[in-house]
Amino acid sequence: MAIVAQHSRFSKIAWPVLAWIVGLLFFFPIFWMVLTSFKTDADAVKPEYLFFFTPTLENYANMTENYDYWRFATNSVIVSVFATAFTLFVGIPSAYAMAFNPSRSTKDVLMWMLSTKMLPAAGVLYPMTFLTKNILGIFDTHFLVILVLSLINLPIVIWMLFTYFKEIPKDIIEAGKMDGVNTWGEIREILIPLAWGGIASTALLCFIFCWNEAYWTVRLTTTDAATLSKLIEGNRAPEGLFFGRLSAVSTAAVGPIVVLGWFCQKQLVQGLTFGAVK
Amino acid sequence: MGRIVLENVTKSFGDAHVIPPLDLTIEDGEFTVFVGPSGCGKSTLLRLIAGLEETTSGRIVIDDADVTEVSPSKRGLAMVFQSYALYPHMTVRKNIAFPMRMAGVPESEQEERVMAAAKSLNLVDYLDRKPGQLSGGQRQRVAIGRAIVRDPTAFLFDEPLSNLDAALRVGMRLEISEMHERMKTTMIYVTHDQVEAMTMADKIVVLQAGVIEQVGTPLELYRTPRNKFVAGFIGSPKMNFITGEEAAHYGAETIGVRPEHIQVSADSGKWTGKVSVSEHLGSDTFFHIHDTGLADTITVRADGEVSFKHGDTIHLTPREDVVHKFDAAGLRIT
Ligand SMILES: Nc1ncnc2c1ncn2[C@@H]1O[C@H](COP(=O)(O)OP(=O)(O)OP(=O)(O)O)[C@@H](O)[C@H]1O
Ligand SMILES: [Mg+2]
Fold first, then answer.
1. Contacts of B86 in chain A (CB under 8 A)
2. DSSP alpha helix (H) spans, B78-165
3. pTM score, whole prediction
């Protein structure tokens, strides 16, 4: 008895404390970045100014005036929205087919799709650049970025949707067929409403991946289709260590997505618990 | 109309041949029941008719139209699932109206037919609830309502009552039978409960391992089972099978005597044994009798008033006119 009581008291205190420590560890770099973004470049590198400094908006003003932050932000929004929409548009029917009309090789197809994520992106960098720049002529276009973001996220999106769809009893899908619904009607009337929470979380995750993707967006764009990742990249090295400015750019780049995540969190939890009547 | 014909239909799942070549005709307006032990392919057969499974070979014909390659949504059949399979995100009203909405029925007519169905199924008070807020019996009614409003060529039921408690099951059984009397639509009903089969069916199809053992009216199956399997499957309690010398007297390998066709007596009879267990149901009494030298256990159904205790000696006399005779292959000898 005593041991049990002691044990539970220990875990009641220790686990939350541990969780807080881990949470703060993860949070600290972001917090630091946000703090630094309000410092001048000179203050930013001085340890004594870590917490106490005179805040300034200079970096942010500078960013919107000299770097055209809004153009990069608009590009990020455009490519992320369209890539997410396109990925879902292809992913939902694919996952539906695999979940409810599996063939012998469905499992293999799923594994194969995942395996494409194992190929190092750097391996195809040269052919990709050459192909898009010299042959297709779509280098630095929204179209290219949307296409690339869609394709790299499709496997994970299909996997996620597949697992969510698997939760839906097959009978309900079959009842739809018996009730005279065709495949698109089935997806629209039954599948999407029932898997709404899962689809929303998949969409959010896909959107975040698109927003944060840096490898290809940096390398396949120059100006026209350049996203916020490119803006951060551009502020990094050549002009020396402008930590204040870099932090401001980074904060402004991750800001929208953090806000979106925070806002959707409630929607998502609601979406996941609502309609859970089986 | 709703005449369904299966011609040479087979079904395999990979290497598992679930339905060997099978022929079956279901007449328009008939209440047909598929019975058989678990795993014998009843659901598979029903799903083949529904179109939810593709046939491996053979033809399915509904009202003279070959529907083998037609999708389930276009076959004009309605199905009631064991799990009810209601749409959890829709109210009862929307669930029932769903097939009509998909078929483009005008809204005023939808509403009318939903109300008519709800009235006949006692669902009027629940129309605005979600399926999650209903009892099992109510959910089953909604599922039936959703099937009725489509005005299908045939209804398919896959063990629709097996998730309900015994009392509710009897009630729903009657409701479905009444529905059939009223609508005169073809119905195919899958069950492994032979009481449901006997009480509801116009025609029973007994299946074993995908093979049709016999097709007939409930009484035909009861009176003249084609083989030992059907004889043992139809009727409750099960028919007694006796082999050996006693069977040889009848010129058979095996004889079968139903429990209700054996008279009991304390003094004299053809066979003798010792009572092992007696079950009093009020109206009837079941005796399980050992040490007869005929079979492990002989079951007898007697009047509720008859009383023997454990260990009592009991004399049994079969009704000779209803002793069933089977040959070495298990087939009926007439
Ligand atoms: N999708 C499938 N893949 C492989 N085998 C299957 C599949 N569906 C059914 N089977 C097999 O087919 C046989 C018949 O199954 P079916 O569901 O038709 O039986 P049933 O008579 O309805 O049984 P129950 O009374 O238990 O519902 C079983 O042996 C089952 O394992
Ligand atoms: Mg079954």
1. 172, 175
2. 92-103, 107-120, 136-148
3. 0.84
Beta-bridge mates of residue B332: B326
ipTM over 0.90: no
Q: Collect contacts of B131-135 with beta carbons under 8 A, ≥24 apart.
A: B131/A277, B131/B84, B131/B86, B131/B87, B131/B88, B131/B90, B131/B92, B131/B95, B132/A277, B132/B88, B134/B92
Q: Is B150 on the interface with A (CB under 8 A)?
A: yes
Q: How many C-beta neighbours within 10 Å does residue B197 have?
A: 24
Of A104, A181, A275, the CB nearest to B73: A181
For A64-82, letters b (16+ CB in 10 Å) and e give eeebebeebbebbeebbeb
Q: Which of B13, B15, B56, B233 to mutate to test the pocket of ligand 1 (most atoms within 8 A of CB)?
A: B13
CATH number of A70-272: 1.10.3720.10
B150:A179 CB<8 A: yes
pLDDT (tens digit per residue) in B102-131: 999 999 999 999 999 999 999 999 999 999
What length does chain A have?
278
Asked if residue B18 has its Cβ within 6 Å of ligand 1, the reply is yes
Residue of B43, B98, B134 to mutate, testing the A interface (most A Cβ within 10 Å of its Cβ): B98
Domains of chain B: 4-230 (3.40.50.300), 237-326 (2.40.50.140)
